[in-house]
Each structure stands twice: as C-alpha cells, then as structure tokens.
Amino acid sequence: MNIIDDVGEYLEDESIGTVGTDIFLSKTVDSPDNVVVILDTGGAKPDMYIPTGLPDFQVYVRNKSYTTGKAKIDAIVDLLHQQANVELIDGGAYFYYIMLATEVLFIGRDDKGRSEFSVNFNTKVRR
Q: Does pTM surpass 0.85?
C-alpha cells in the first residue's frame, strides 16, 4: 500500500493539479516551474497486534509566485488536515486520520527564484 498514490489522486480529483503533469509522486522535477510533490517520509513503528500502519508523508509546493504557491499549499492543508475515517479515493487505503505534523514552512527560493513550501502529515491507516 502506497498512500501517496491515494493522496495524489485525491488532490487531482479536488482540482489541485494533474498527476504526472504538475503533481509528482516520490520525485522532484526541475520542470515545470509550478509543481506539487508528494513524498513518503517514513513514519512510526506500527502496532504488532493491530493491522494498522502509521506512515507519514510530505507535500512540497514550488511556484514562480510566492502568493500562488502559498495559496496552493494552504488549499492542500485544508483538504487533508483532520480527514478522519475515510477513503480518499474509491477502493483506496482507509485512513483513520490524516493530521498535520508540522505547520507550512516557507523553505525559500530555489536557484531559479521559485518559491518553495513544505508541510508534513502523520496518518494512521488500515493494513
């Protein structure tokens, strides 16, 4: 089970972008300028008796415009934070919860002047 696939498809369904065009999973790209990247970041040790997992993920947003990039990552936080007892997509992973692990961080500007933001999430999923 790779939860970032579900998150990417959900964000596409919610009109944040298109997977493979401006939403990328498990990889950063230099082009296009304006992207959303969803990365696996490990997680906590799962319970050995209960079939659940505690995977974490990061959302990275890069945009030529600070204002647009900040608005995009804030919209993603609004969509994901405090989701509970849901499948983000039909037939996908069952999320007991998705919670912010950090606040949105403005990383700065890359060498091409594009604004970069990141935010991390904790989850609990059914295995």
A: yes
